[in-house]
Every structure is written in C-alpha cells, then in structure tokens.
Design a protein that fits this description.
Layout (H helix, E strand, L loop, with lengths): L9 E3 L5 E4 L2 E2 L6 H13 L3 E2 H8 L6 H16 L7 E3 L3 E4 L5 E2 H15 L2 H8 L16 H28 L2 H14 L4 H13 L3 H17 L5 H12 L2 H10 L17 E4 L3 E2 L2 H21 L3 E2 L2 H6 L5 H8 L3 E10 L2 E10 L4 E11 H4 L5 H23 L8 H12 L4 H17 L4 H18 L4 H18 L4 H13 L3 H14 L4 H14 L2 H14 L6 H14 L3 H12 L6 H13 L3 H14 L5 H7 L4 H13 L5
Parallel strand pairs: 1-7, 8-10, 8-11, 9-11
Antiparallel strand pairs: 1-2, 2-3, 4-6, 5-6, 11-12, 12-13
Helix pairs in contact: 1-3, 4-5, 4-6, 5-6, 6-7, 7-8, 8-9, 8-10, 9-11, 10-11, 12-16, 16-17, 17-18, 17-19, 18-19, 19-20, 19-21, 20-21, 21-22, 21-23, 22-23, 23-24, 23-25, 24-25, 25-26, 25-27, 26-27, 27-28, 27-30
Organism: Bradyrhizobium rifense
InterPro entries: AfsR-DnrI-RedD_regulator, BTAD, Sig_transdc_resp-reg_C-effctor, TPR-like_helical_dom_sf, TPR_rpt, WH-like_DNA-bd_sf
Protein name: Tetratricopeptide repeat protein
Length: 659
C-alpha cells in the first residue's frame, strides 16, 4: 500500500487540524469557522453551494455570504500551492481541487475496506498511523448546529473505522505483539467486551499473569463506573481462564472474576432526571421561575421517556449542590436554569449537568413573550422539555453504542434500535428491528420499543420494501397496537398508531391518534411533524405548516428534519407559495439522511418553481442513488389531493420523468 511522500501537500483531519506543505505544518487561522470550512470542503470532494455553506456555519448572521467570503479569503493561503490554485470558487459554488492534495481521512476511508479484506499487518499499521486522535479533535463551532451534526457523524464514522483496523491487526499479530494494539483498541472502544477479553487472553498467553489480574480488575471497575452490568464480562473472563488451567487458577484466586459464569437477568432501567427550581433575580422573576420549573417537570413526566423527580421533592432540595441533591434521589441527570425578564419577553438559560463530576452536558437559551409563558400551551416550557429530552436520549444512545450487544438491557437495546432506524437503509432498518425485538423480549411492558418497531415497519412499507407494503402495514398497525396496550398514556404509542393508520389511508383516525399524542405531550416534536405530514397531503395546509414549524422549533436538530421540511413544502405548495416551498424542499434534500422520496420532493418542487437547472442537478443525484426511480413510485408513496397531484404531474412532465 503506497504511502504519500513527506513533501506532498496534505490536510490532516484525523486529530487536531493540520495543513502540511513541504513537510512543515502551516500556522492555523484563529477562526474556528475557517478551520471548519476547510475540513468540510476537503471531505466533500465535490463543489458545494454557497447557500449550503452559509446554512452549515451561520445559524444566525446579518450577512452570511459576506462572512463566507471573508473565511474563503483566509482559507486561500492555506490551500493554494505556490504554483497551483486549489480553492475554486464562483458566485454559486466552492470546491477544493484535491488531485494534488492528500487528505488523511479520505485516504483512510478509501483504503480501509481493501486493507481489512486482504491487507498485511504493515498495510494496517500504515493506515492506523494516520490517526493522531479523533476527527478534528478539539474543534467545535458555536451556534452552528448543522456543522456540529456533521462533525459528530464524521467522528463516529472514523472511530468505527479505527476500531475495525485495530481489531483486524490484533488478529494478524502473534500474541506477544497484540498487547499494545489491544490496549489502544480498548481506548477507542472502551466497552467492547471482546477487546477486554482478548487483552486478558493475550497477557495470559504471554505469561504476564500479574498484569492479566490487574487488567481483569480494571475492566470490571470500568464497566461498573458507567453503570454497565459486568456479569457477562466476568463470565467471558472465566471462560478464557478455563482454556489455560494454571492462569485460570491464578486469576480466580486473586481477582473478582466469578468463575461460575452465572448471568442474572438483564432488567430495564430508565435514567432519573432531577429538575432543580429555576432561579430568578427580582421577586416576580423568582415566582415565575417556580411556575416554569413546575411546568417543565410536568411536561417531562407527560413525555414518559425518562423518570422525573416530582416538584415537591425537587423544591425541597433547592439550595443544595447538584451532586448532593442527585445523590439524595439517585438521579443520573440534573437540570437547572435561570429565568430573566427583558421588557415584554422572558429568557430562560438551561443547563443539563452530570452530578457526579459537575460537568455540563448541554446548555441552551429559550425565549418567549411574557403573555405566552403561562398560557395553557406554554411554549417556553415545551421548548425546554423537548431540549432536555433530546439531549438525554443522545447521551444514552451514545453510551449504548459503546456497549457490547450481549450486555444491553431493554432501555439500551431500544436506543441501539433508534440509532439505526433513522438511517433509512434496508440493512440499518433490519438491525433496528433486531434491537427492538431484543428490548421487547427483555421487557414486554416497554411501550417505546413497540413504537420503534412499528416505525421500522412503516419505513419498509413507505420506501424500503414497497412490494411487501400490505404485510408491512399490518405489522406497523399490530406493533403500534401492542404499544398502546402496554401504556395507553405514552404519546409515542399514539404517534406510531397515527402513522400506521395513515399508511392504511384511514386519514381521520390517523389525525385523531396524532392529536391525542400532542395532547398527551405538547413537547413531543415527532407527533407535531406527523400531524404536518398528514395535513399537508389530505387536510388543512395552513395547519400543516403550523405543525411543521412547531416540530422544527421543538427539535431543531431532529433526525426527521428532512421530512419536516418536506411536509412544510407540501403545505406551502397547496397555499400557492411556490418559491418558499422550493427553498424548504431543497433544505430537506440536503439533510444527510434524506431518503429517496425527500429528494424527489426537491426535484419536483424546484421544477414547479421554474428553477430547472437546480431541479436537473438534484434529479441527477437522485438517479445516481436509484436509476429506475419514476413518478409512479412517488405518487404511490404519498396520499396527494388533486391540487398537489396536478402540480407535481406537471413538474414531472417538464422534467421528462417517466410515469
């Protein structure tokens, strides 16, 4: 496997960002956005629209295009060579000409598959040497949620590739040479049970029995510190011991390995959230802060996704530190906040804290008019509830992703299912179903697992297995029904039922179920989006736009953001706002997990707005993913009233898309 010359110009992304020219690292620009822009363009490998770059890096800016021009001016000296212009920009697009520019991340992405299948240990070491840390280690960009979402995805992707390379290298090496590789693997994947067992086995096979005993103790302690049941890990260690009698005896006498290998049943656990009474400066702010705190606790309880400490208990803990208060009620998360009045508005500053360390997991600010703060549908409390719930689930999901599948409880298996179900591929949808089935087997009363399983059948009927649509609709309905039986007050169960009823074209019943989900929990963004999805096609387009806006407000980084934009697009088209509809259709198609129908919405809406060049460009991208796509597939997927169907039929004809 050929390595690059040291004198070649390189962009290094697998660790802190570096740009190397003639073997020397160039000074980095102080602007985080300039560095973020360089990384994004280097990874893109194609022209990126200025509009896309502005949306990526400037959530709120007076002149995003002007700021982009400034960033490009700072980027050019880093990228352009002495005799070559690599940063190519015109009025619409920007790209980095990468033929003479080596990007370490692209090299790893392009060569890992062949190295895993047929590469030598030297090939694997060469690729692993490119990793100096996490992808863009140390870089974050405030108020740029789209970039942060992209960055999180890249970090997970290259973390997985690094883990696979280390696993393969450890297999190829002799036992005495595996130890350091396995130690590195554990740092990359700290809760991969197989890596811990392999390290203990390698130490034992190398006659390093004392180190093996220490490693057993350290591994078990590490699992316990994260609340992971180490029983199966102990059992695996015991099995490894039995393969070598003398080491096994030494380990069983001097460590905490349970040689019986008995594994207790895995039980469900939901994290506990303590919402501390919010603070305020003035007396009226203190009183109002107490009311908002009560509304947030009530809203979290209605959402029924995590366990929430009651207001009476939370108020009695006021004044105590997060660590002391959390210990009193065994809470894994503590939320605190401050309410300030500014003229006719309120600003709430919220923090989600890890009580053991005092580390802030997440912080955000929410605002509303004073008149709205204490109405029946409190938008301030709803935004706070949605934000806290989303962040807790992200943390729980990421912890579950680091755990070996065999040790998952129902809650963790559910989160592994959720992590897969929003990727919209047949393979990931099947993996999601496996995890949801496991969660149900571990806890048949956990309604969220049924809702997730129903969603996977919805996706099969809608886009992934359309030839088996009727069977998948029946499964979506039955699993949603099981969820309702387990917990009729769970908004997610009503959400799943509403979507399944829409598939069956029982539109009135679908709206009834989704309305019930929003009544049970006004903070449940998925229910608001699904209402928008139904109304935009067969109901009230104004209500569809309103529901889509509510969903986006409650969950601005939602994994279904492409579909939220799609529902808004349909509603705007039916209201005659074609230009605005085209903007949101394109935003939807540009989301990283947008499925094929979302891309088709962009093609047809852009054509309806007369933006034919852009429509043809999006059509080329769609055809690259699914060459045989036609208008009948689009029409079969949605339940379009005549007004919307006629608009899209004309657009399809203008684009020469086959029926």
């Amino acid at each position: 496997m050929e390595m690059a010359s040291p004198s070649a110009d390189r962009v290094l992304l697998l660790g802190p960002l570096q740009v190397v020219r003639d073997g020397s690292s160039l000074p980095q620009p102080p602007s985080r956005k300039v560095r973020a822009l360089l990384a994004y363009l280097a990874m893109a490998g194609r022209p990126v629209s200025r509009e896309k770059l502005c949306e990526l890096l400037w959530d709120v800016a007076d002149d995003p295009r002007g700021e982009l021009r400034w960033c490009l001016s700072k980027l050019r000296p880093l990228v352009d060579g002495p005799a070559a212009m690599r940063l190519i920009a015109d009025r619409k697009q920007v790209r980095i000409e990468g033929d003479a520019l080596e990007v370490d991340a692209l090299k790893v992405a392009g060569q890992t598959r062949s190295a895993l299948s047929s590469g030598s240990s030297s090939d694997l070491r060469s690729l692993l040497a490119l990793f100096r840390g996490d992808f863009l280690e140390g870089l974050s960009v405030e108020r740029a949620p789209s970039f942060e979402n992209w960055l999180a995805g890249q970090r997970h992707r290259f973390g997985q590739l690094r883990q696979q390379l280390l696993e393969r290298l450890s297999v190829l090496l002799p036992p005495e040479d595996r130890i350091e590789v396995l130690r590195e693997l554990i740092e990359v994947a700290p809760f991969d049970e197989a890596a811990h067992v392999a390290l203990v086995r390698a130490l034992t096979n190398s006659a390093l029995h004392a180190e093996a005993r220490l490693q057993v103790d350290a591994s078990v302690k590490r699992f316990k510190s994260e609340g992971i049941d180490p029983t199966s890990l102990r059992s695996a260690f015991a099995t490894a011991q039995q393969q070598r009698a003398k080491p096994a005896k030494a380990l069983s006498q001097n460590s905490n390995v349970d040689a019986t290998g008995h594994q207790e049943p895995v039980r469900t656990r939901r994290p506990i959230l303590l919402v501390m009474p919010f603070a305020g400066a003035a007396p009226d702010e203190i009183a109002d802060a107490g009311n908002v705190t009560s509304d947030v606790i009530f809203g979290m309880a209605k959402l029924r996704s995590v366990s929430t400490i009651a207001w009476s208990t939370a108020s009695s803990l006021s004044g105590q530190s997060p660590a002391v208060a959390a210990a009193r009620v065994n809470a894994q998360y503590v939320a605190s906040g401050r309410l300030q009045r500014h003229g006719s508005g309120y600003l709430a500053s919220i923090e989600l804290i890890e009580p053991a360390s005092g580390r802030i997991f997440w912080a955000n600010e929410f605002s509303c008019n004073v008149g709205e703060a204490f109405c029946a549908a409190n938008p301030l409390a709803s935004q706070i509830v949605a934000g806290l719930d989303a962040e807790i689930h992200i943390i729980e999901r990421n912890r579950a992703l680091l755990m070996p599948p065999a040790s998952l409880d129902a809650w963790q298996a559910y989160h592994r299912g959720v992590a897969n179900m929003y990727r919209f591929t047949s393979e990931s949808n099947g993996e999601a179903q496996t995890f949801f089935h496991r969660a149900i087997a571990l806890d048949p009363t956990f309604s969220r697992s049924y809702a997730g399983l129903s969603f996977t059948h919805f996706q099969n009927a809608f886009v992934l297995k359309t030839r088996e649509r009727e069977q998948e609709i029946a499964l979506a309905l039955s699993t949603a029904g099981h969820g309702l039986e387990m917990d009729p007050s769970d908004p997610a169960a009503h959400w799943a039922m509403g979507r399944a009823l829409w598939l069956r074209r029982d539109h009135e019943s679908a709206i009834t179920a989704l309305d019930q989900a929003t009544r049970l929990s006004p903070s449940y963004a998925s229910a608001h989006y699904s209402l928008a999805m139904v109304h935009c096609q067969i109901g009230d387009p104004e209500r569809a736009v309103e529901a889509a806006d509510t969903a986006a407000l409650l969950s601005p980084l939602d994994p279904m953001l492409f579909a939220i934009f799609g529902a808004r697009t349909f509603g705007l088209l039916r209201l005659g706002k074609t230009e605005e509809a085209a903007v949101f259709a394109l935003r939807g198609a540009e989301q990283p997990n947008a499925h094929i129908h979302a891309r088709a919405i962009a093609v047809l809406t852009l054509a309806s707005a007369g933006r034919m060049d852009k429509a043809h460009a999006e059509w080329a991208r769609l055809r690259h993913l699914q060459p045989a796509y036609n208008f009948r597939q689009f029409e079969d997927a949605f339940h379009l009233l005549d007004d919307l169907r006629n608009i899209y039929q004309k657009a399809a004809k203008a684009m020469h898309i086959l029926e």
